[in-house]
């Protein structure tokens, strides 16, 4: 008996009924309960001496009961977290096709360099005189970012993309206030296809938002932008390449219209991975753009860990870059940590973060840049675009393209038109991909496309991995069109946890674990 890949199956594989084990484990696929379910309050893997008598200073804030944290022995703790890690999907597990998120391979060379003494152990409170090498790294990273974007200044301290958005828009707000227009320029234009953080960022710092409609081909028309311009408009926040995977063909004209109206052009740089070495945002008229180091330059992505979202600024906005920043005087770099210490001509809008940013991310990104060089980074962009179009070409006869007249940039976008009449939804299709060992692509985004499926393979993937991915999605598409609904509507079948009621989970979240009532065993 052969499976879908033509490989021999073991006896019984594929059958709906399988032998259930007493433990719930299935050989090496082991279940792992919550730590609250397996831990004990009286157990710990660490011996802690009883503290000497002391007088508490907590007063009424002192804990009245036991802390209630579960404890495990050292081997149990190790097994618990190793088993949990085995249930997680990551770029080291397989192809990660999230659209607009650029989950590329993080080269271990970058990790090795970031762990060198002097980088891994540098402390933000060290005297600046003791860390000249760290300042040199920041300067070199800044030089690369400014060269690649064609922009004269960069703020390194923002910690992520949305943080960078806030930085760029706060610089725009400061520039407007400096011109005495803070009370009048209060509107930010945001295309309908934008990332959700764009309108949220504008609103967060006090702007009101007007939507710019998307054309039927997924792009923004300069005529639609001009129709919304007026003395009340402060800026536009435009993603390029946009979230439909298309390079905005009128971006230069849109930038010129904004500048002519006295407004600014903020570019969401989340998709910079598609154009590094090919096009410089500064040449297109961009005034501010954040760069996700974890997307474009291969630093680790996700998990809530340390991030970096530097913001490049045009000459019009450079004076308002936040502290801290590095200023070179007489050939010697100086870290300007306070607004009062800024050199003449600079008027920082404030501070985005407590210290200088995330040194580990700076080192990883710079290691990526140095190991690739200018030609290598350009090729990475070309390969990312090639891979996306290869996937698009491999699936276009089975899955529908909402914008067939535009070639894809770094990501290929499909809609759910091809699923009509099958009883299978975009979500069902995504869940079935889990059974095949793939993390699903981004679904239902961008919102301008119904049932969107946004696939970004990045430049990291080989032709062999892309071929297997395409073949898998073709097999799923043929099954969906062949009325094999059970494969989809109840998927995933083989994941450690079955499909959740996501609507109920969102509306009625359970945020605290409660110990279940004991269940009595039935008498013989």
Automatic annotation (TrEMBL):
Q: Which reaction does it catalyse?
A: N(6)-[(R)-lipoyl]-L-lysyl-[glycine-cleavage complex H protein] + glycine + H(+) = N(6)-[(R)-S(8)-aminomethyldihydrolipoyl]-L-lysyl-[glycine-cleavage complex H protein] + CO2
Recorded superkingdom:
Bacteria
Aminotransferase class V domain: which residues? 184-302
Q: Which residues form the Glycine dehydrogenase C-terminal domain?
A: 380-476
Q: What does this protein do?
A: The glycine cleavage system catalyzes the degradation of glycine. The P protein binds the alpha-amino group of glycine through its pyridoxal phosphate cofactor; CO(2) is released and the remaining methylamine moiety is then transferred to the lipoamide cofactor of the H protein.
Q: Which UniProt keywords apply?
A: Oxidoreductase, Pyridoxal phosphate
Q: What is this protein called?
A: glycine dehydrogenase (aminomethyl-transferring)
A Gene Ontology molecular function term for this protein is:
glycine dehydrogenase (decarboxylating) activity
Under which EC number(s) is this enzyme classified? 1.4.4.2
Q: Where is the composition biased (Basic and acidic residues)?
A: 512-524
Q: Where is this region: Disordered?
A: 1-22, 505-524
Gene designation per UniProt: gcvPB
Q: Does the keyword Oxidoreductase apply?
A: yes
